[in-house]
Design brief:
The chain is an all-alpha fold and 433 residues long. α12 crosses α19. The termini are far apart. Strands 1-2-3 form a 3-stranded antiparallel β-sheet. The protein is globular, with a radius of gyration of 22 Å. It is built from 20 helices and 3 strands. The protein binds amidocarboxymethyldethia coenzyme *A. Amidocarboxymethyldethia coenzyme *A binds next to loops.
Length: 433
């Protein structure tokens, strides 16, 4: 497999680089932890390492050093389309460099050969209660495939530590290859009376998802690839990435770890915010029977804050500017359907809500994050069942978190075990200052 060869070729150098750093500079301090941070969700505590992506508070995400506009320009794309192959993105995340068209297509081909979803996965999903959340279905589908994990099998057969990453890569490729069909199944089963659309082996991974969703407009294929690129990774400290890393650090395989990561993504402060966000937009839209005036929107935003709720899609734990993942989707909407009502409303919210949050003075970041707009674009293409949006986020996020755990295993990262203290201990420390 191409990806395996490319990772293998870099490993001696990477292992030596990390070994040397830890051996020679292992005692160097990179930060301090305050009592406020311990009680404050460990915000800004430097305790993790990843070379796959980095979130700059002002500039936003860089994947392997590239900004989103750079990636949209440089990654290979299907002819005549505006969003890159997801296979090329995965190559970048794992290998660290921009692939050629052939290299991107090699990953796409690899996924095609592994894409058959076993029937038992669908049986399990069909057997779940009717009112189960689509994210629960998605997480369950991933978890139930754990029985196929090569990593688990080879670990128990005594594989050497240096080789852990290889079955981790195999498992990740198998899992990712199946995700479009699993996600589209959940959508069609839950919302379209179970009328399934068979996969089209001629299509790339992202386009095939769009096809199996049953959205006729060909532009939705571009949007799907764009969406999967934008949501894939956001360094290591966010809930889904950190959960996946933590679970995998105990040498759980990718099925266990990714399923756990998706469970974290399901929280309303994290991935579920895209669902909440569209719900909020439709709440405004329905209250005013259409796109409201700026004054009405201003009042609605204040009513939300005064009732003690957050305005979903705004604010971020790290970012302090408009999220470039928001901007890429906003630009897509502006280009293709600027007159769409829900999109127009989302654009107006971008105009009004930051000033409301600034006026309130609580949120450290009043700017939109990735979730403030993604639902409005899906809505335009008829994917209006917003309970489903976090599943799409999850499909994408598994690209990033799996790339991270493959490298965790390749570089021999140990089980994670932070230290906790009691409140009395913290009080005693504080009393000495
Ligand atoms: N609306 C109202 N209040 C907000 C707010 C928003 N959008 N964003 C932050 N605040 C409030 C916080 O609730 C907090 O209030 P408190 O002191 O009464 O608890 C205060 O401002 C300070 O919070 P912060 O330090 O700016 O944010 P944080 O790092 O604690 O949390 C986040 C970050 C994203 C959870 C928060 O901004 C939020 O709840 N936003 C809305 C939900 C959302 O969009 N989540 C998606 C994030 C991206 C993702 O993971 N997909």
């Amino acid at each position: 497999m191409l990806l395996k060869e490319r990772i293998q070729a870099q490993l001696p150098e990477w292992r030596e680089r990390v070994r040397k750093l830890v051996k020679e500079k292992g005692d160097v301090k990179v930060g301090e932890v305050t009592i406020g941070q311990i009680y404050g969700g460990m915000r800004d505590v430097r305790g993790l390492v990843t070379d796959i992506s980095y979130v700059d508070p002002v500039e936003g995400i860089r994947f392997r050093g590239y900004t989103i506009p750079e990636l949209l320009e440089k990654l290979p794309k299907p002819e005549g389309s505006e969003a890159p192959y997801v296979g090329g993105l995965y190559y970048l995340l794992l290998v660290g460099s921009i692939p050629t068209l052939d290299e991107a297509l090699a990953v796409e081909e690899e996924w095609k050969t592994r894409s058959k979803v076993p029937a038992y996965v669908f049986d399990v999903l069909r057997a779940l209660p009717e009112d189960v959340h689509p994210v629960t279905m998605f997480s369950t589908a991933i978890l139930v495939m754990q029985r196929e994990s090569l990593f688990a099998r080879e670990y128990h057969a005594g594989i050497k530590k240096d080789a852990y990453w290889e079955p981790m890569l195999e498992d990740s490729m198998n899992l990712i290859a199946r995700l479009p069909e699993i996600a589209a199944f959940i959508y069609r089963f839950k919302y379209k009376g179970g009328e399934l659309i068979p996969s089209d082996p001629k299509l790339d991974w992202g386009s095939n998802f769009a096809h199996m969703m049953g959205v006729a407009d060909a532009k939705y294929r571009d949007l799907s690839r764009l969406y999967f690129l934008l949501h894939s990774d956001h360094e290591s400290g966010n809930v889904s990435a950190h959960t996946t890393h933590l679970v995998a650090s105990s040498l759980s395989d990718i099925f266990y770890a990714a399923s756990a990561g998706i469970d974290g993504l399901a929280g309303p402060l994290h991935g579920l915010a895209n669902q909440e966000c569209l719900g909020w937009l439709l709440g405004v839209y329905n209250k005013y029977n259409g796109v409201p005036s700026r004054e009405e929107l201003h009042r609605y935003a204040w009513d939300t804050l005064n009732s003690g709720q957050v305005i979903p899609g705004y604010g971020h734990a790290v970012l302090r500017k408009t999220d470039p993942r928001f901007t890429a989707q906003y630009d897509f909407g502006m280009k293709h359907f600027p007159q769409d009502d829900v999109f127009k409303l989302a654009a107006m919210v971008y105009d009004v809500v930051p000033s409301v949050l600034l006026e309130q003075g609580k949120a450290k970041d009043p700017w939109p994050n990735v979730d403030a707009i993604s639902g409005a674009l899906q809505y335009h293409y008829g994917v209006t069942e917003f309970d489903f949006y976090t599943v799409m986020f999850g499909v994408s996020r598994i690209l990033g978190v799996s790339a991270n755990v493959i490298w965790d295993r390749a570089l021999g990262q140990p089980i994670e075990r932070a230290k906790s203290l009691t409140t009395a201990m913290l009080e005693a420390i504080a009393a000495k200052v």
